[in-house]
Amino acid sequence: MLRTYYNPVAPMPPSKTHHIIWNLVLSDKELELTPQTLADENIQHIFAILPSTAEYLKLSQQIPDCPYTVLEYGDTHEPSVDFEKYKECGQMIDNLARQTDRKNVLVFCNNGYQRSLPLLAYYLTQFHKDEIPTIEKAVSVILAQVDKANYDKLTEMTESISRLLNQNQ
Question: What is the per-residue pLDDT for 3?
Answer without folding.
Answer: 61
